[in-house]
Amino acid sequence: MEQDLTLTHGRYILFLDILGFSQLVQEKSIEDVYDTVNQTIAEFRRWEELNRDFRTIYFSDTFIFYQESKGYGDWAFLDVYAIGGMILSALLAKGIAARGAISFGDFEVRTDESQRHQLYFGNALIEAYRAEQRENWIGITILKSAWEPFEKSKGGIVHVFEREKVWICRSDGVLLLNPFRKLISAYDSLLACDFNEDEMRKNDCDFLNELMGFKFLHDRSEYYLKQGDFSSKVAGKYHSTVAFLKRLLGDRLYEWIYSMAMR
Q1: What pLDDT, on the 0 to 100 scale, is given for residue 146?
Q2: Which of 39, 121, 177, 255 is the most buried (most CB within 10 A)?
Q3: Are strands 62-67 and 11-18 parallel, antiparallel or unpaired?
């Protein structure tokens, strides 16, 4: 009964933090901080306009992208992880590192009696926050609460998507999301002799975001390696993210994307 109520009343949320925000505030100008936040909000606003069933809550370095309607739907799961990946790649393209988690469950958004303050709370928020804080990489995790209803609906589809490089299924049941799906599609087009790189760079902003985001991650990891920094908390995030991408993509695909990103 409790599970049925969750499916009926639950919401999908993407909880996303800008990484290194405290350092940014301490070391950069007010205008630099404002610009970083403004660019991040713009990416969420873009997807609010394109997908009318999700809204954004912002506070300090945290963004909550939540399903406005209540209740589970296959469409909501597919939308939230796809949009999450594109938001992340767009931020990386701007040199903004972020980490997040996607959950499904109770999440209430209301105004107080004075209509002056927005109140938001719920198990989905707590779960996503705790999950995001546990990770030491730059990326988005998809929690069991988010993907299990979809798996029950479709049966075996999670592992099908893993073979298609949408994510990696970790041993604890958490999915590690791939934010570079356009680049994989481009490689498939190349193998089919139907890929025009110049046209993609010129006309597909999501493709260009992914190229620039990929380059940002690779360059930052290389920077720390050249400094001899293999294990600090900040460097470790970049190293672990690049290791994830190499595992996900495989050597040939990774090198092909790298060659394009460096041009």
Answers
A1: 98
A2: 177
A3: antiparallel
What mean pLDDT comes out for the span 187-204?
91
Helices (H), 176-232: 181-191, 197-203, 205-226
Encode pLDDT of 132-161 as tens digits: 999 999 999 999 999 999 999 998 899 999
Q: Checking DSSP bridges between strand 98-105 and strand 140-142, what pairing results, if any?
A: parallel
| 3-state secondary structure at position 103 | strand
Helix 74-93 and helix 144-154, axial crossing angle in degrees, nearest 10: 130
Return the number of other C-beta atoms located less than 10 Å from residue 201's C-beta: 14
Residue with the two structure tokens 């779960």? 127
CA within 13 Å, CB half, 103: 20
Helix (H) or strand (E) holding 58: strand 54-59
Domain architecture of the chain: domains with CATH: 2-179 (3.30.70.1230), 182-261 (no CATH)
CB hemisphere CA count around 41 (13 angstroms): 11
pLDDT-based confidence at residue 201 (cuts at 50, 70, 90): very high
In 144-231, the DSSP E strands lie at: 167-169, 175-177
Amino acid at 122: G
Q: Which residues of 188-197 are buried (b: 16+ CB within 10 A; e: fewer)?
A: eeeeeeeeee
